[in-house]
Write a structure and sequence with these properties.
Elements (H helix, E strand, L loop, with lengths): L11 H11 L1 E8 L7 E4 L4 E4 L6 E2 L10 E6 L2 E6 L6 E3 L2 E3 L1 E3 L5 E4 L2 E8 L2 H14 L9 H17 L4 E8 L2 H8 L1 H18 L5 E6 L2 E7 L3 H17 L2 E3 L2 E3 L3 E7 L7 H17 L5 E2 L3
Parallel strand pairs: 3-4, 17-18
Antiparallel strand pairs: 1-2, 1-11, 3-5, 5-6, 6-9, 7-8, 7-10, 10-11, 12-14, 12-17, 13-14, 15-16
Helix pairs in contact: 4-5
């Protein structure tokens, strides 16, 4: 009797699809929603996202269609399909008609953003995401205001304990309302994300870049004095001025105004440092914008 060899061919792509099908999955509201942090579990039924109150996921915004998009489960995994909506469905900033979702994908409907989570331990992933929401601004992926305030207080105490310099930079985008009015809020969101990315690339590991609110950002600069803070602010200002923000084929130009202050013995707390820095930012805007101010 002749020995026979049986060869099993494994298709990695099919295996990956099978794994996606078996794992628990959900969408988590991470931006632009009153239900921030809410988890929407995905089971084997069709789910609808839209403005209508009968939808599985309700996004009550005028820019969202009544039945905007569908989340579908089939033998190949979980996919999202745009329902010929007025303003489109976006996955990782790309406009889609239909696409399969992968762990970590960002789904944007109107001004709301959802993160797709899937895996063997989805509860752990969900709790990690909730922690991120407490520290990170979901739109720009830099730290949020709460984390900034807590960190600044700690850095102030450390600077005083070891008698080291500490500078604070605050800047915002000049005439940002015009960007939203002219190109739309999605273009404005893109500009915010891109500027945050540019600043993060220039910052040191010890610096803390945060979205302070709206179009205003803050950067905590440990071991940096006023002169160093001014130098960094000018780098940021020139970088933004020279950047061509390309959004859906349209070039958008932007500038920023900045204020810089250094911790001194007369400041009682971190709130005073913020107040002085913000006043200098205001002076930069009142003096013509596209400049940085580091003195009173």
């Amino acid at each position: 009797m002749r020995d026979e060899t049986i060869v099993t061919v494994i298709n990695p792509e099919l295996d990956d699809l099978d794994q996606r099908k078996r794992k628990d999955s959900c969408l988590v509201a991470i931006y632009g929603s009153s239900d921030l942090g809410r988890k929407y579990s995905i089971d084997n039924r069709e789910m609808c996202i839209g403005r209508g109150t009968a939808n599985d996921i309700v996004v009550g915004q005028e820019s969202v269609s009544r039945k905007h998009a569908f989340v579908l489960v089939d033998e190949s995994g979980i996919k999202i399909r745009d329902n010929e909506s007025t303003n489109g469905t976006y996955v990782n900033d790309n406009k889609i008609h239909e696409t399969y979702l992968r762990d970590g994908d960002l789904v944007k409907i109107g001004r709301s953003m959802f993160k797709f989570l899937t895996g063997d331990n989805i509860e752990s992933s969900y709790h990690d995401e909730i922690y991120r929401l407490s520290t990170i601004d979901a739109l720009t992926q830099v730290f949020n205001r709460r984390y900034f305030q807590e960190t600044l207080a700690r850095e102030l105490s450390r600077a005083r304990r070891y008698d080291r310099p500490l500078a604070l930079l605050m800047f915002d985008i000049d005439y940002f309302k015009r960007v939203n009015d002219t190109y739309g809020h999605r273009a404005g969101d893109y500009v915010l994300r891109r500027i945050a990315e540019l600043v993060q690339q220039r910052a040191r590991k010890v610096d803390v870049v945060a979205r302070y609110g709206g179009e205003e950002f803050a950067v905590i600069l440990p071991e940096i004095d006023t002169a160093g803070g001014k130098q960094f602010a000018e780098k940021i200002r020139r970088m933004v001025e020279e950047e061509r923000f390309m959004f859906e084929g349209q070039a958008i130009t932007c500038t920023v105004s900045a204020g810089i202050a250094e911790l001194n013995a007369e400041m009682a707390n971190s709130e005073q440092l913020v107040s002085i820095t913000d006043a200098r930012l205001y002076r930069a805007k009142e003096s013509g914008r596209n400049q940085s101010v580091a003195v009173d």
